[in-house]
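Comment thread on ticket #2218

A.B. wrote:
> Attaching the input chain for the structure job we discussed in standup.
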Amino acid sequence: MYTVEQMRDLGRRLRETIGLPYSPVAVRVYEGDSQVPACALRPYRDKKIHYGYCQAVSLVKTQNITVALSKEDHWCWKPLMAFGLVDCERNTEVYRHVLRNSGIPDPAQADNYFQNDFPLMPRNDQRVIVLAPLEKTDFVPDVILAYCGSSAQIRDIIAGIKRGTGKAVKSEFDYMDSCVYSYVPTHLNRDFRITFPDPGETGRACCPANEIILSIPVEKMEMVVEQCEIKKSHYSNRPLKEDGTIKPNFPRPQFYNELYSLWGLQTGEVSWTEEQRGYQA
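C.D. wrote:
> Ran it. Output below, let me know if you need it in another format.
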C-alpha cells in the first residue's frame, strides 16, 4: 500500500494534470480515536462548535486543514446515519422521521429506498471520519474525493480511468446526500463514483454549483494519475482548437479517413496523424 509521501505526490500530480481547483480530499474512517492524526481539528472538542460534513470538506479544500468528525461534531443528520453513528432501525419513531424527510412522499416507496438503496455502514458510535488535503495528508486515505471545477475536468479523469480499466465509470445520481454518496458506496464496493454536490453543500458549505465530485478508491489512485498523465500527453499533440464557431467539413484525425475510405465514404483534411494521436495499431 502507499506511503503518506506517495499519497501527497499523487494528489499534486492529479491536481496539476487535470487542473483541479483544489487538492483532492483524503478521507479515512477510523473505528476509534487512537489513530486520529494529532494535527486534526476536532470542532467540538477544540472550539465547542459543530460542522456539517460538507462544511468540513470545504474547509479542507479551501483552508488546507485536517478535520476529524466524531459523533459529537456533526450538525447534519444524514452522515450520522450513513456512517453508522446513530440508531435508525425500522419501525421506530426515528425511522418514521427518516422516511418523512427522505424526499419520497409515498411511505412504501420511501421505506423500500431506505432499506435497499441508501448506503449504511455498520453501527459504531466511536467512529471518526478524518478529512485532509491529499497533498498535505498525514495519513493514507481510504477514499479520495476529486472536486472537479468543470465537466471537462471530470471528463478527462474518466478518460484516464477507461484507458486503465477498459470500463466506463458507472454511477447512480441523487439530488441530495452528496456527503453520503461521495464516500460510503466507494468505501463499501471499492469502485469509482460520480456525485453532484447537494443543496446543502452548495448552500451551507460554499461549494460552487458547477463542481462535480469523483470518488476514487485509494488502491486505484496511482493508475488513475498515470493514465491521466498519458492522456494529457496525447492531447498536447493534437491540434484541436475550439473557437466558438460551427465548421462543416472540419479536419479530422487520420483514422477517420481510414475508416471512411473502407466504408466507401468521402475523406478530407487530416487534423492529426496516428503518431500525433499517440496510438499505434
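A.B. wrote:
> Thanks. Noting for the ticket: The chain has a mean pLDDT of 95.
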